[in-house]
Amino acid sequence: MSEKTSxxxxxxxxxxxxxxxxxxxxxxxxxxxxxxxxxxxxxxYVDAINITDNQTxxxxxxSLAACIRLKLMGLEPVLQMVTRDRNRIALQSDILGAxxxxxxxxxxxxxxxxxxxxxxxxxxxxxxxxxQLLQLVRxxxxxGKFLGGDEIKRPPKMFxxxxxxxxxxxxxxxxxxxAKKVAAGAEFIQTQCIYNLDKFEKWMEGVRERGLHExxxxxxxxxxxxxxxxxxxxxxxxxxxxxxxxxxxRMADTPKEKQAEEGINICxxxxxxxxxxxxxxGFHVMAIEWEEKVPGIIERTGLYPRPEV
Amino acid sequence: MIVAERKPxxxxxxxxxxxxxxxxxxxxxxxxxxxxxxxxxxxxxxSALRMYFLNxxxxxxxxxxxxxxxxxxxxxxxxxxxxxxxDAVLSLACGVGVQFMADKYLSTxxxxxxxxxxxxxxxxxxxxxxxxxxxxxxxxxxxGGICPISRCAKRVLNGPCGGSTNGKCELSKxxxxxxxxxxxxxxxxxRLDDYEKLADIKDWSSDRAGGPRKVVREDVQE
Lengths: 309, 222
What we know:
heterodimer; A: TIM Barrel; 8 strands; B: Rossmann fold; four-stranded parallel sheet; three-stranded antiparallel sheet
C-alpha cells in the first residue's frame, strides 16, 4: 500500500501508526463558526476530520464548503459524499472542486434514505452506488479521466475510503462485501459503530483469512453513549446497528448522573480491546454532537499525542 | 401489469362537480385485474357519485362504459360517435389510457380516476407489489432474477446497503431487502460467488433519464 496522494491520513497509515479520525456534522445554517468550534475541540487529537454529507437526510450546510473551512484552518478533512443527492455530473464536478482546494480524502457512501430526513417527499438520485463512486474516484485519479473518457487537467488526488458495516445482514456476505469494496478501489474503511466486539472480531477473522487487512486500512468506528436512552435507541431504532443486551444493561444499571461517564468508559475499553485486533489500523471516533469528549477518549487510550509524519 | 389505485372520491368530485354529463370510462385490462378501474369499479364509483350529487340536489348524468383497452386506437374508437354527448370523461384507465383518450378526443376534457402506481404483480387478492421500473436494460440475469432497481429503495446495484436488518429494508420491517432476496437466490442456485462481481455503472439513457421512449418494430408494422 504505497502512497499515491498528499493525504496526511494516508501518510500516517502508511507509516504503520494507528490513525485517528473523527467527524463533524455541518450546521443547519450558514454560520461557519459552528464548524470551526467543533473542529477546534478535536483538531489536536485526530489526524483527519470527516465532514458528513447531509447525514440522516437532513438538509445542512454542504460537506464540501465545511471541508474548505477545515482546509482554511490548516486541518485535514475527509469529504463524505453520498450518491443519494448527486448524479454523475455533480459527483465528478464536486470531486474536482474539492481537489482544487487540495482536499485529499474522500469517503464514498450511498447515504440514508431521504424518507428519514426533512425532505421525505424529495427524489433520490442513486445514479451510481457507493461502490461505483469508489470506481469513479479511482478512475479520475489513476487514469486521469472523466467517466465519459475525456482527460482531466490536473486530476484529483484523493485517498479513497468507504464505509463497512460488519453487523448488517446477511452476515455471510459481510466479508465478501468488503472484498468487493476493495476491488472497487477502497483504500481505507471506516466501520459502523462497534458495540458487539465479539462479532466484529469474528468479521475481522474473515477479513484476515482473505488477506483483505493487507489491502485496505480498516479504521474501527466507535461512538460513546451519552445515556442509557441513547443505547436503547441505537439498539432498537438505528438500522444496521448491533448493540448487545449486556452493553445496554451496563448503561441502564448505571445511575443517571454517571451514565455519560460510563458511556465514555465503554468506548475507551472498546478501543483498548480493538487495538489488539490484527488488521485494525486506526479508529474513527464518532462522538455525535459530543465533540468535546473526543480528546479525553484519545488521551485515555494512549493514542495521544498524534504522530508527526 | 400496470398497477393502479383509485383516487379518493373527494378529489374526483372536486374535478367533475361543475359538469352535467359525464362518461365514466373503465378499462378491461390491468386496472380490472388490480380492481381499480374495471367494469365493477366503474359501477361502484358511478353509484357513489350519483348518490353524492343527488344529496347535493344536483342533476348529473353519469354513463358507464368499460372498453376492452384504453391504450389501443381500435377500442378507443368505439366511443367516437358518443363522445360529443358528454361534458367530460372520467377515465379509470392507467395514465396511458387517460393520455390516449386526451390525444384522440382533443376537445373533450378527461380526468384520471386512478393513480397509476407501478409495474407489479398480484401477491394475493388485495395485495399488489412492484417488480419492474422499465429501465429499458434488464439486469435480472446478473441479480438472480430479483430486480434491485425496482425493489431496493436506493436502487443499489452492488448491495445490500448498511441498512439491511434481518432481511428487511431500513425503510420498513414490512419491506423485504431486495439484496437479501438476491443473495438467498444466488445461494439456492449455488452461485454465491457471483455476488462479488462488481455491477457496471449503469447506462440510464434507456430509462426515464433518456426522455420519452419508444419501441419501433418495422417488421411488424403495416
